[in-house]
From TrEMBL:
<dbReference type="GO" id="GO:0043165">
    <property type="term" value="P:Gram-negative-bacterium-type cell outer membrane assembly"/>
</dbReference>
<comment type="function">
    <text>Part of the outer membrane protein assembly complex, which is involved in assembly and insertion of beta-barrel proteins into the outer membrane.</text>
</comment>
<dbReference type="InterPro" id="IPR037873">
    <property type="entry name" value="BamE-like"/>
</dbReference>
<keyword id="KW-0732">Signal</keyword>
<dbReference type="InterPro" id="IPR007450">
    <property type="entry name" value="BamE_dom"/>
</dbReference>
<dbReference type="Pfam" id="PF04355">
    <property type="entry name" value="BamE"/>
</dbReference>
<protein>
    <recommendedName>
        <fullName>Outer membrane protein assembly factor BamE</fullName>
    </recommendedName>
</protein>
<keyword id="KW-0472">Membrane</keyword>
<dbReference type="GO" id="GO:0051205">
    <property type="term" value="P:protein insertion into membrane"/>
</dbReference>
<comment type="similarity">
    <text>Belongs to the BamE family.</text>
</comment>
<feature type="signal peptide">
    <location>
        <begin position="1"/>
        <end position="24"/>
    </location>
</feature>
<comment type="subunit">
    <text>Part of the Bam complex.</text>
</comment>
<keyword id="KW-0449">Lipoprotein</keyword>
<keyword id="KW-0564">Palmitate</keyword>
<dbReference type="GO" id="GO:0009279">
    <property type="term" value="C:cell outer membrane"/>
</dbReference>
<feature type="domain" description="Outer membrane protein assembly factor BamE">
    <location>
        <begin position="34"/>
        <end position="102"/>
    </location>
</feature>
<dbReference type="InterPro" id="IPR026592">
    <property type="entry name" value="BamE"/>
</dbReference>
Length: 137
């Protein structure tokens, strides 16, 4: 009787541990957190811009320096499936007039494939005057 319970526990333990040893079978999604930063938008931040212009480009910062309100931190954390998370911090410093004095990125952002703009031209067929009665759609 005790042998059957012992074997049952051993089989159950082995079956549970065997599931955990198989790696990368379960799909894990990419998890972006914080401010989504792209290299093209970060490159547009130049000295002399106002705080409203920076906020229009990058959104609300994750952290504003609580002591001076002149330093904004944009933090972007990206974790691709089974890889280590990668953190990028973009720091924007303002002068007393509220203009950007410096903008620093701690490490380069990965390049995103350029998306084509939607420049679709909608045109009508040339023979619009001649319509058949059976082509009503």
């Amino acid at each position: 009787m005790q042998l059957r319970t012992f074997l049952g526990v051993v089989v159950l333990a082995l079956s549970l541990t065997s599931c955990s040893t198989v790696q990368k079978v379960v799909y894990r999604i990419d998890v972006p957190q914080g401010n989504y930063l792209e290299a093209s938008t970060v490159a547009q931040v130049k000295p002399g811009m106002t705080a409203q212009q920076v906020q229009y480009l990058l959104g609300t910062p994750v952290l504003i320096d609580p002591y001076s309100n002149l330093t904004w931190y944009y933090v972007f954390l990206q974790q691709h499936s089974y890889q280590k998370p990668e953190q990028h911090t973009f720091t924007v410093k303002f002068d007393q007039n509220g203009l950007v004095s410096s903008a620093e990125l701690d490490k380069p952002l990965p390049e995103v494939a350029k998306q084509d703009e939607n420049n679709t031209i909608i045109s009508t067929p040339e023979n619009t005057g001649k319509k058949s009665w059976w082509k009503f759609w």
